[in-house]
Structures are given as C-alpha cells and as structure tokens.
Amino acid sequence: MLENYIEKILINHNEIVEKSKELGQCLTKDYQDKNPILVGVLKGSVPFLAELMKHIDTHVELEFMIVSSYHGGTASSGRVNIIKDIDTDIKGRHVVFVEDIIDTGRTLKDLKQLFLDREPASVKIVTLIDKPEGRVVEIEADYTGFTVPNEFLVGFGLDYAENYRNLPYIGVLKEEVYTN
Which residues does the UniProt record annotate as the domain Phosphoribosyltransferase (predicted)? Predict the structure, then answer.
C-alpha cells in the first residue's frame, strides 16, 4: 500500500545492508579497542543504526539524542532544537554520530560543535545518505553510504510528517503527496 506513494525506489534493501556492512567494517578497523560511543539522532537514524551496529566487530556504546529542525515540514527550519541530550560524559571519548541523512547540514554542524566543546577524543559522522545539493553549511560526513540527488526521500528511517520510516528501502516520494 505505501508503495502507491513512491515515485521510484532509489536504494533497495539489499544495497542498504551491503553498504552498512562496508561501513561497519571501516568503523571496526578505525575504532578497534577504542570503545566509541555511537550517537543515534532520533528518530530517523534507528533503522540505519540497527543495521550498521550488526556489522561493527568491536565494543561500542549507544546513546541517543532527539533533535528537531524540520518541525513537520519539508524543509529545515534553520533552528536546531535539542529535545533530549545524551546521558554519557564524552570527555576524552570517541564519538560517532549516526545519521540517516545529511541534507542542509545545519543539525550536524551544530551537534558536532556542541560535542567538540565537551572535549571528546574525537567526533566523527557516519551517514547512510548524503545529499550535498541541499547543503547550506560546511559539513561533511567521515563515512558516507550513498550520495544522492536533491529529491524528497523517504524510507529506512527517512520520513514525511512522521510517516514512511518503516519502508525497507529508500524511495522518492511522489510530489503530490507533500504539495497538497
């Protein structure tokens, strides 16, 4: 039924799993014996984080933040609100933000600066999707799954008005869904 609202599938489930394995292997190599803290930015990061961590073969800790910048619309408001911060002291620790998508970059730029002020050993970003055409600030992921064109994407954590996150793939939402 949800497929009726999808213009096309951009990245299928198998491609997501394979890319998560690749990224997990990179993180395993880079963070062996460093016990990094993976910080999932809720809600969109959950499917990717769940898939990614299955493929990391070293100790990791999990933390979650709730951050909002879209406020129910289709474009970032430019205001990043931290609704729930992490509970762990990160001073001297390695932190890896896990994101579903980097679009404008505002959210991650603000979060990275906030965390750098807390004196961690390092702060890195892994994202499933990078949409560089949408960027309005200077920020790059350290680990990127897929670079995509500037289309309205849903699925595998990406949403429109809190819907479509449960799709097992990433698809382009039909324009009439979000313009009516």
Answer: 13-160
